[in-house]
Amino acid sequence: MIGYFTNIYKVSAALLEGMWVTFKWMFRPSMTVQYPHEKLTPPERFRGTLVFDKDSCTACNLCVKACPTACITLEPYVDPATNKRLAKINWYQIDFGKCNYCRLCEEACPTKPVKSVRHSHGYEWAMTDRKEMNVKWVRP
Amino acid sequence: MTTEVIKIKGADLQTEEMILNLGPQHPSTHGVLRVILKLDGEVIIAAEPEVGYLHRGTEKLAENRTYPQMLVISDRWDYLSAMSNNLVWCLAVEKLLQIKPPEKADHLRVIMVELNRIASHLVFFGTYGIDIGAYTPFLHAFREREKILDLFEEVSGARMTYNYIRIGGVMADLPADWVGKCRSFLEWMKDRFPEYDTLLTGNPIFQDRTKGIGVLSQAQAITYGVTGPNLRGSGINFDLRKDEPYCSYEKFKFDVPTGANGDCWDRYWVRIQEMKESVKIVEQALDGLPAGETNAKVPRILRPPMGETYAQIEAPRGSLGIYTISDANDKPYRVHVRAPSFINLTMLQEILVGQKVSDVVATLGSIDIVLGEVDR
Known about the structure:
- The complex is a heterodimer of chains A (140) and B (376).
- With 140 residues, chain A is an alpha+beta fold.
- Chain A has a domain at 50-138: Alpha-Beta Plaits, CATH 3.30.70.3270.
- Chain A is built from three helices and five strands; from the N terminus they run αβαββαββ.
- Chain A has helices at 2-26, 62-66, 104-108; strands at 50-52, 72-78, 85-95, 117-119, 134-138.
- By secondary structure, chain B is α+β, with helices and mostly antiparallel strands.
- Chain B is 46% helix and 12% strand.
- In chain B, the strands form three sheets. Chain B has a three-stranded antiparallel β-sheet with strand order 1-2-3. Chain B has a three-stranded antiparallel β-sheet with strand order 6-7-8.
- The two termini of chain B are 35 Å apart.
- The A-B interface holds A 7, 10-11, 14-15, 17-18, 20-22, 31, 42-47, 66-69, 100-104, 119 and B 65, 68-73, 136, 143, 146, 153-158, 161, 163, 171-172, 175, 195, 198-200, 202-205.
C-alpha cells in the first residue's frame, strides 16, 4: 500500500519536472519560422533549382554524362552552311521530375567564370503537370 | 478463418490463434514495414517482419552508374544519416583505387559523420518518445536536429541528401565562420542533455515501459549478426570506430557505452550516451583540424583496377558495409550493401515472442530501423 502511494508520488514528481522544462521554454523566443510570411535566406552553397545560360554553353556533353539520372538532354548547333557542329546549343532540356539536385552537372561544367548550368537559390517551384517538369531552353 | 460453430465441450473452451497485421500503414512502424503477429490472446507467439515495400533496387542501379554517380544514390539508403552512406561508399572506392585522402578530409569526414550521428539519434529519441506516448521530447529533439541540418545545409547545400563526402576527399572546404557556428551548436547541445534526461530518461513511466521489455541476450545478438547500439545495448563492446579504425578515428578519445541487460531501455540509453560521445569527438576534431588540401588527386574518370573490396564503418544504426567488384570499367560490376537496419530487424522475430501486444511498438521503436535502408 505504501509502495502504491510512493509510486504515484514519484511519477507525478517526474511529470511535474518534465513540465517545468517545457514551461521554461514557453517564454523564450520562438524557434519556428512562419513560412509563407517569413522566409529564411538559403546559404551560399544551397542547391536549389537549376538555371541554364543558353548563350555560354558549349554543348560539350559533360553534364549529360555526369548526371546520375540522365535528366539532361541537349542538341548541339550544326551550321547549316558547312554542316559542322559548333560549340553552341540548339536546345537544352532538364527533366526536373528526375533531377536529384546533386550538383554533379554544375561541377562537371567547364565554362568560366560562370557555369552554364548551375544551382540557383530558388526553392519555391510547383508544377501542375508532369510535362511541365521538362524545362527546355531554346537558342534562337 | 472458419465460420464453423465452435463446439463447447464442458468447461474445456477451445481457443484460436489470431493473426494480426501491424502495418504497412502504421505510424509506429517508422515507414512501410509489415509485421505479421500471431497472437494467443494478448501474448505474441510468433512475429514475422515482412520487408520490401520500399525496395528501389539500388544495388542493381549501381551496375548502371559510374562510381561518383552512385554517391547520389547512396544518400537515399539511410536517409537519416546520409553522410555515413557517402563515407562508406567513398571508402570502398578509395580502397579499390588505393587513394588515401588528405588528413584534413579525414577530419572533415569525422565531423560530418558524428554530427549526423547526433541528428540520427535525435530522431530516434524523439520518435521513440512518441512511440511510448510522450510527445514533447520529439519537439525538443527536432529543434536541435534542425540546427544540425542548418549546419549541413551551409556546408553541402542540402538538408538530407548531402552528397558531401566525395571519392578522394570532400566536396569543398568548410565555409567561413562554420567552425564557430558548429562550436556554438555543441555548447548548446551539451546543455540540452540534462533536459532530455528530465523529459524522458528519468521518467518512471518511460522506464516502466522499457525496462525488461524486448530482451536480446548476448548470444542471440551475436547469432543474428546484430550491430550498432542494439548490440552494445546487450553488453557487447563492439564498435568499428575502436576495433577497426577508419578516417583516423584512433586519434580521438571517446568511450563506447554499453548496456547490461539488452532490453529496450539499454538500447535507448546507449544511444543517448553515444550522442554525448559524438559531441566530444566533434570537439576534438574541430580542435585538431589541420590545414591543407581537402581532396586527394583523383582521375577525372574513375576506372579502378580489377578486384573486389569490402569497406565498413560504424553508422548510427550499426556496421554499414559495402562489397564491390570492379571489372576495370567505370561502372561497378556488382555492389552489395550490408545494411545494419535490415540485419537488426531480423531479431524482431526472436524478441517479440512471449510479449504482450502493447509492447510491440516499444520494442520495434527501440531497434531504430530506417526502412529506406532495410529495403534499399
